[in-house]
Amino acid sequence: QVQLQESGPGLVKPSQTLSLTCSVSGGSISSGAYYWNWIRQPVGKGLEWIGYIYYSRSTSHTNYNNTLRSRISISADPVKNQISLNLNSVTVEDTAVYYCARDYGDPWYFHLWGRGSLVIVSS
Amino acid sequence: SYDLTQPPSVSVSPGQTASITCSGDKLGHKYVSWYQQKPGQSPVLLIYEDKKRPSGIPERFSGSNSGNTATLTIGGTQVLDEADYYCQTWDSSNYVFGSGTEVTVL
Q: What is the model's pLDDT at position A106?
């Protein structure tokens, strides 16, 4: 059974870069069958999609939330079987639980979620 | 950007039917998914492609989508159905979530 596990620093200072990793177990991120997403949720608020990476042995591409595009980078490490998120120039508004999630592509829904990782932006 | 609007809260008595709406421009032309999120937990997929249920999701959860409104219906609501519910669609190459609805069973 495939599982997703987010990890990273729980505290980041304003203006710095937030970096998170999603470790995938029970399946390969290089299968080419899935899209690997990051989604966040400020405490007590709703869900916001951040972006995804599609990765296979022959190709990869990313797609980002239009409102966050300038600050986001999502990458894949097939050796470690991990997906990574970098969000730069963070502010307190980026404080949230960050989820890793998987989808099949069209018709675009998330069928598998990680447990989430809380990141607090504070000096 | 595309917006999905949900009522902030819905209250229902045990055993009754709860309906949660999700509104967006020409939403009926798009696929809608629904997620359930209980406190401290990750969201769980309840409905995809407007009305399909993943394996393991009880039959009391059903979905529909037409015009500008998608609806999640919980038939025979149970106390364990108390949670936040989010609709989601895909527009202009971006995922979009609704604002969420808190369902209270009392």
A: 82
**Mean per-residue pLDDT pooled into runs of 10, chain B (106 residues):** 97 97 98 97 98 97 98 97 98 96 96
Q: Check CB contact under 8 Å for A63 and B90.
A: no
| Residues B33 and A109: beta-carbon distance below 8 Å | yes
**A47 interfaces chain B, CB cutoff of 8 Å:** yes
For A37, the closest chain B residue by CA position comes to B95
Chain B closest-CA separation from residue A109 CA (Å): 6
Q: For chain A, which ranges sit under pLDDT 50?
A: none
Show the beta-strand stretches assigned E in A42-109. 48-56, 60-64, 72-77, 82-87, 96-103
Alpha-carbon span A98 to B16, nearest angstrom: 34
Give the C-alpha separation, B75 to B20, whole Å: 12
Instruction: Please report the pLDDT score of residue A73 as a whole number.
Output: 97
CB burial readout A29-59, b (16+ within 10 A) else e: beeeebbbbbbbbeeeeebbbbbbbbbbeee
Q: Which residue out of B1, B42, B93 would a mutagenesis test of the A interface target, given it has the greatest number of A Cβ atoms within 10 Å?
A: B42
DSSP B52: B
A111 touches chain B (CB under 8 A): yes
* Cα separation of the two ends of chain B: 36
Q: Do A110 and B45 touch (CB under 8 A)?
A: yes
